[in-house]
Amino acid sequence: MQTSYTFTFKAELLPGYIANIMTAFPMTLYLMAYSILFGLIIGLLLTLAQLRGGAILAKIAHGYISLMRGIPSLVLILGLPQVAPALAKLPKSTFILVAMTLISSANLGEMMRASYLAVEHGQTEAALSVGMTERQALTRIVLPQAVAVAVPNFGNNIIGIFKETALAFSIGTMDLMGRATTISQASYGATRLEVYIAVAIIYWVICLALQLVTTLVERASSHGRVITA
Hints:
Largest sheet: none
Strand content: under 5%
Order of helices and strands: HHHHHHHHH
Radius of gyration: 22 Å
Helix content: over 70%
Shape: flat
Number of helices: 9
């Protein structure tokens, strides 16, 4: 006995679903903002370890970055409680934040290291030759140019972290994706297509906004400066 399948798509449901899903945006914003903040702090320490920490610390930092960048995010999220059972006792939002911070710190640390090295060392030597101290050369010459180099990659990292927050639903966190999944399950999958199109629109629009901000910041940070790689 054959059963027929009728494709239906109700576009009129999208505005309501978008509004409903957006109620979970504060959780997504929390995960993104704090994973970036803590990721930058740890990433800075990793960068300093690689550049100024000596051979041993540099190898440890390099190994950490290689490990975190090589493990799929979902594998890390699901595997961490097995490696460190104490993490499983944390609130779900805190646990996912820890996992995302580990991942983002590796990417952000590598971004900072590469941006610093992109500035020609001869510029530091020239600054010292005209009487600047090492701190002045760093803050007035190197860092402004390194920031300009880092902005595009930083923007890409922010977008990547924002999309990575969608994995939070895999452990039951009520972020955008978690909310969309709950709505879909409530209708027993009858409007699954509309729900996931709605959440896709949300992610797409927010990513466009992040791209626009990145472009504006990049233009402002590079205005009037010559970056020598």
